[in-house]
Amino acid sequence: MKKLTQLMNDYLITPEFGGAAIAASIGRQAPAAWPGSEITGVSPDGSLKLNFRGTPLRQILNYLGTAAGFIINAKPNVEVGTTMDVWSDKPLEKEEALNLVKRVLSEKGYTTVQDGRRVTIIRTQDTKKSYMPLRPVCGPAAGLSL
Fold first, then answer.
1. Which pLDDT belongs to residue 130?
2. In the chain, domain spans
3. What is the Cβ-side half-sphere exposure of residue 83, based on CA atoms within 13 angstroms?
4. Partners of residue 55 on adjacent β-strands
5. Do residues 101 and 68 lie in contact, with contact meaning Cβ atoms separated by under 8 Å?
6. What pLDDT score was predicted for residue 106?
7. pLDDT at 26
8. Average pLDDT of each block of 10 consecutive residues along the chain (146 residues)?
9. How far is residue 20's CA from residue 2's CA, in Å, rounded to a whole number?
10. Model's pTM, two decimal places?
11. Which of 8, 43, 103, 134 is paired with 54 by a 20 to 30 Å CA distance?
């Protein structure tokens, strides 16, 4: 059961995201959720429920990527094993959920850069040393001509 729980923790496999099928394939029963977290996935109206308490950042980002469709890139110096608390009492739209995670990351010393569906996470202290993609505000690359 320990290996199955670790697999579920590493790859965001819950009963809602195929955990029961994987558990059955190895002759085990899938745990209902991670300890301290209740994950229900995406509701029929497309909203997300976030209830992560003492959950590793890796799991939170995996959930956000899977459930909300974001492409998340955590730079190598981001400690994805760090536990965090991210929750809301009400269901959130995808952008609201992302903004809540961004706020918690900011409090933990991380900066997020969003470009459409792509979200990059970097330590705030490394932002001056890192390449930050910039969008042109005028000229042919921005679709504007003078």
1. 65
2. 1-32, 37-124
3. 9
4. 84
5. no
6. 95
7. 44
8. 49 43 45 46 78 93 92 93 92 94 95 93 84 55 52
9. 15
10. 0.63
11. 43
Instruction: Return the C-alpha torsion angle 34, 35, 37, 39, nearest 10.
Output: 30
Can you say whether the dihedral through the CA atoms of 121, 122, 123, 124 is positive or negative? negative
Tokens of 12: 């965001």
Written as six digits, the tokens of 108 are: 């933990």
Give me the count of residues in the chain.
146
The domain made up of 37-124 has a fold known as Phage tail protein beta-alpha-beta fold (3.55.50)
Q: Which residues are CB-contacts of 77 (< 8 A; sequence separation ≥ 6)?
A: 122, 123, 126
Q: What is the 3-state secondary structure (H, E, C) of the chain?
A: CHHHHHHHHHHCCCHHHCHHHHHHHCCCCCCCCCCCECCCCECCCCCECCEEEEEEHHHHHHHHHHHHCCEEEECCCCCCCCEEEEECCCCECHHHHHHHHHHHHHHCCEEEEEECCEEEEEEHHHCCCCCCCCCCCCCHHHCCCC
Tokens of 10: 């590493």
Taking the C-alpha atoms of residue 47 and residue 35, their distance in angstroms, rounded to an integer, is 23
- Per-residue tokens: 53: 């308490």
